[in-house]
Amino acid sequence: MKQDWENIIKERLDGDRTELPASDWNDFLSRKSAHERAARRRRILTLAIALPAAAAVVAAVVVTFFLMSFDEKSVAETEILSEDGTGYAEMTEVCDLSNPADADSVELIDDDLESDDLDVEEMPQFPGGTAALLEWLENNMQYPDNCRKNSIQGRVLVTFAVETDSTLSDIRIVRSVSPDLDREAIRLVQSMPKWKPGALRGQPVRAQMTVPISFRLE
Amino acid sequence: MRVVTRRELSESELARACAGGDRNAQAQLYSQYASGLYRLCLRYMGDAEEARDIMHDSMIRVFDGIAKFRYAGSGSLGAWISRIGVNAAVDSLRRQQKIQKIPLDRTFEDHFPEPDAGDVEMIPANVLQQMIASLPVERRTVFNMYCIDGFSHKDIAKALNISEKGSASVLAKARAGLKKAISDYLKGTR
Fold first, then answer.
1. In this complex, do A28 and B35 lie within 8 Å of one another by their Cβ atoms?
2. Inter-chain contact A3–B97, Cβ cutoff 8 Å?
3. Which chain A residues in 7-26 lie under 8 Å from chain B, judged by CB atoms?
4. Contact at 8 Å (CB) between B174 and B105?
5. CA distance A15 to A94
6. CB contact (8 A) between residue B39 and residue A179
7. Mind giving me the DSSP string for B113-174?
8. CA A123, A127, A129, A133 torsion: positive or negative?
9. Is the pLDDT of residue A116 over 70?
10. B123 Cβ under 8 Å from any chain A Cβ
11. Least confident of A13-27, A53-67, B40-54, B90-104
């Protein structure tokens, strides 16, 4: 049975009209579009896994770039922003690191654009390549104390743009694990050494990278 | 510039328009329900940033699932949205392993008298929010679900994967904690 005073608490709380900041609707919209993008990515992933190489050739560009995570399966997403900054091509890379053949070539599947529009020559690169990125992350990660204490772990997906001048911008969390791990992931990205910008038809282009950062406790 | 004034949609119209992907309707639904949903999330999460996160997640679930919503009279949309909010908050707390196995504690006794309803009425809403937020997480969750959001012990037991007895026992502790907080607060203001 509920007590009188508890009903009063409920009434008082129902009567509370604390409003959200005005910026909230926009924050929500960007969150929602990240969610929709992720949902689309999951669909492409299913497709990529379901269809063998023969079908993938139609829409796929093969590049010698891959990103690893500490897990056995790795997914990295790359967006090439077009020169005028309006449109972008979105691609999903799938590689299974337990399969050494996958380490050499990864198929990119274009979701939005005709494959002719995509002439990817070079993805942005971490100095020393992906192995160096993994090592760097491992060496520079400061596992938040309270997450260690509460054994909070998981994989944070961070997205950022690599500008043509090598600076990183627009750093955002795509998949969150906990506020502290998210903060650490953002701090790691902010303190990374300079990336080599991506290139399209020989010209440096701004490209969006999404990197999974795994927080694992022993 | 052409200014288009739109009539506010009624609850059932609003749900139908949102299901049809109407952007304006979605914005209207958001402006009507987001703040309330945020306050609900705040009660569960106890942290403003996390609450906003969970609120956004819930709103995404709302828009994803609104085609499945069945209008059942005035207030049913709000109730449906609140359910989604509670589920999202509880999911998140469980995922973060903040809610774990709750031990049954039979030796527990509550010595605090029932607070006077009139006194409680004098306490500002944000202070009450704070009192609830300060309860240990599983007590807070059960109190919120049972006393504020109208879940039964049976529903709570199912949602939290505990026994009904466990839910009742946690509720008793949450009540004791709140009574203490209320009596401390009233002492401080006298």
1. no
2. no
3. 7-10, 12-13, 15-20, 24-25
4. no
5. 50
6. no
7. PPPPHHHHHTS-HHHHHHHHHTS-HHHHHHHIIIIIS---HHHHHHHHT--HHHHHHHHHHH
8. negative
9. no
10. yes
11. A53-67
Q: What is the ipTM of this complex?
A: 0.79
Q: Do B147 and A16 touch (CB under 8 A)?
A: no
- CB contact under 8 Å between B128 and A152, yes or no, is no
**Nearest chain B Cα to A147, which residue?**
B96
Alpha helices in A87-140 (DSSP H): 129-140
Write down the mean pLDDT value for chain A.
Answer: 67
Q: Hey, what amino acid is at B30?
A: Y
- Say yes or no for a CB contact (<8 Å) between A5 and B125: no
| Angle value at C-alpha B155, between B152 and B159, nearest 5 degrees | 140
Per-residue model confidence as pLDDT tens digits over B102-131 = 555 555 566 778 888 888 888 988 899 889
Residue type, B3: V
Cα separations in angstroms, A138 against A112, A162, A216, B103: 34, 21, 10, 38
Half-sphere exposure of A32 (CA within 13 A, CB side): 19
The tokens for A69 are: 């995570």
Query: What sign for the dihedral angle of Cα A30, A171, A18, B119?
Result: positive
Collect all residues of chain A within an 8 Å Cβ-Cβ radius of residue B63. Answer: 32
CB A164 within 8 A of CB A205: yes
Neighbours of A103 (CB within 10 A): 15
Write down the pTM of the prediction.
0.56
Nearest CA in chain A to B96: A152
CA atoms of B144 and B138, how far apart (whole Å):
10
Least confident of A35-49, A174-188, B133-147: A35-49
